[in-house]
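Fold this sequence, please.
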Amino acid sequence: MRTIKITLAVLTILLVVSCAMRNSIKMVTTIERNGKVHRDVYANEQRLDEETYVNPFLFDIGPDWKITRFDSAIVYNFFGDDEKFNIKISKSANSIEQYSKEIQNATDKSLAAPEESLAKKFRWFYTYYSFKAVYKKLQYEVPVPIENYLTKEEQIFWTQEGGNMGNHRILSGYEMKTTDYLDKINNNFFQWYFHNCWEISFEAIKKLAVGYDLAKDKEKLYETEFSADGATLEKEGYYITPEIVCNSMDNFYKTTYFSQLYKNNEETLDKEFETISTIIDKTGVAISYELVISGKVIKTNTPLVNSDTLTWKVDGMRLLFDDYTLSAEYRIANKWAFLLSGLIIILAIGSLVVWGRGR
């Protein structure tokens, strides 16, 4: 039981404080002019003993990945926080599509293997490239849909880019909650989360309880004990578990039956409740996706552009309610086209001059 309490407390911290990410990964994808791609992935590898390491990546590393362990950790500015990386894996491929296709054994492909593509269009003087990486929505099931609390627009605003807010677009709404509007969404978001905790706990208890019409009293039970302001519950570090719900039912029915029910069925009830806590691991992953190109950026949906490098922040929170797409368009000058066009113009002028003299 103590483990679940700690886990829920961690989830609240993860959702509110972006620097508290459990697992940070830096992914650098370099696209060459000829279309070939090289990828470096950095992480912080932990050791269990002298010979055993814990894989910090989201997929098993195949033999075609080159592994480099650093003697001392590299400190990297991870969106305002210093992050230490002590391992790098590298791999080259003929196309960017190959990476996601080859990662079949990922623990969660939503984060490990985005659907990446690079389209090319020839326009004589320039070749135009369109890059896209789609991170798919996380797969999970909860009894209370988010639509009961947030509109589709609010969901995207809260978990992804925070709307059209200039340089703040790198932050999602939950990372920059400073206005009344964001406070309202924050409140509704946590009400959704706590409501799901309660629903899952309630249904698990109802299966075991005898002699009480819990279905009839369900709404009263929730309104009496758990319908408080979501933001208030979150700030107080509150949590809802089967044990907490059993205690509230004791208060409601003036009995000790439910607390005893929990003690007799603790393992069963906690196992049922773990379905909501599976979201925790998924929201606790943060990825710095860096794209290095050989050309001039024309259009992109990230404000973080430094010369030839574009950077996006990807984490489980951004994938909570919808897909998250990274996109960029850039062009590369065809030098031979400029030279050939210049040569044609010179030859045309020369031909006119010769023709004119002949007349």
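The longest strand covers residues 66-78. DSSP finds eleven helices and 13 strands in the chain.
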